[in-house]
Amino acid sequence: MNFRPIAGIDVGKFFSEMAILSPSNEVIARMKIRHDSSTDVERAVELLKKTEKDFDSRPFVVMESTGHYHKILFHSLYKAGFEVSVINPIQTDSIKNIGIRKVKNDKVDARKIALLYRFQELKTTNIPDEDIECLRSLCRQYYKLSDELTAYKNRLMGIVDQLMLNFKDVFPNIFSKAALAVLEKYPAPAHILKANRNKLIALIQKNSRRSLKWATAKYELLNSKAKEFAPLSISNSSNVAMLGVYISMIKTLEENLEKVFKAIRSLIIEDMAKDMPMLALTLELLQSIPGIGLISAVTILAEIGDFSAFSKPGKLVAYFGIDPSVMQSGEFTGTQNKMSKRGSRLLRRVLFTIALANIRTKRDKTACNPVLMEYYKNKCQSKPKKVALGAVMRKLVNYIFAVLRDRKPYELRSPQEHAQMLAAKHTAA
């Protein structure tokens, strides 16, 4: 048992509740800390220092990860010299039934968060490197914008289908610059049919950057398709208006995505100018693994943070959330266990994309990663495809761990070659 004072902090949007427990688990102090008040934060620090003096032991601070609202208080207490553990809400939720009565308020929650330290050893959360923290914030924003862009593209497709279902026969990619330019100015078949021929051809040529002959052919096809679908088009004012709104949103989101990407690139370039460009070197190592591009590498690096926290591959697998859940009670042992999905959702998303890239073939029909392709096919003989893909994802985490541990680029080796190299090392030792 840990015989030291504990401060539990329940974090809210505008203020937090702090409860300090004595070594005997009695509440000896409570305080409401407003996040916009430097005075409140200073008073909280002084209260913790007084507790340290009274019990001759520095209090350990435990707070729940609540969006970004905990960050200001975390940084302030960490800089004041206190050990602070930021814990997952899943952990605090596990002790909600510690009492029989059903009571839920900030003061009670602060005490329960403090008690959590008594039940399990919690590790101090370190302030991440400033560059890593910036990359993490930029990456998360990048994926949020990307998801919003996908949502608006789907909405746009729904409107285009109503206005002119066969528009895709002319422009297979309706999100291309030329297609969006045509839709924005001539949203319905009636507008296309009334349009000036030369102006419409010029619009297509300008935005596609293709030849006049190509643009003319596209115009002829577009005009033909517009005549064909005109009687069926639902070209009411609502659809026409929303088409313009969605096109505007798509353009804005694409511009913002480019801004975030440029900010990521700028951060990497700044790191490369340093004497010890650790960030840039780590990204280069990660990109040596097939299927990992710049954004994927940056996301992995930013989400993992301090790699020294992972002493073995299994811990990194659990952090990715692809470790199997365990169902065992008495003589019963579950056999249909799924992924725990308790780790980083963003890491799993990126890993899934990388795994798909590694089991695909190139245009010349050769495998992108012959070793993982063969491994996946062998797994598919006895397991469902999704389970086999999960096994590939785990393999990739092992690759990531090895690359970051050894600080060496990835080398494509067959299982036989790998076994021979290990045998040679043992013989030499």
From TrEMBL:
Residues 7-164 form the Transposase IS110-like N-terminal domain. GO terms for molecular function: DNA binding; transposase activity. Pfam families: DEDD_Tnp_IS110, Transposase_20. Residues 284-362 form the Transposase IS116/IS110/IS902 C-terminal domain. InterPro entries: Transp_IS110-like_N, Transpos_IS110, Transposase_20. It comes from the Bacteria. One of its GO terms (biological process) is DNA transposition. This is Transposase IS116/IS110/IS902 family protein. It comes from Acetivibrio thermocellus (strain ATCC 27405 / DSM 1237 / JCM 9322 / NBRC 103400 / NCIMB 10682 / NRRL B-4536 / VPI 7372).
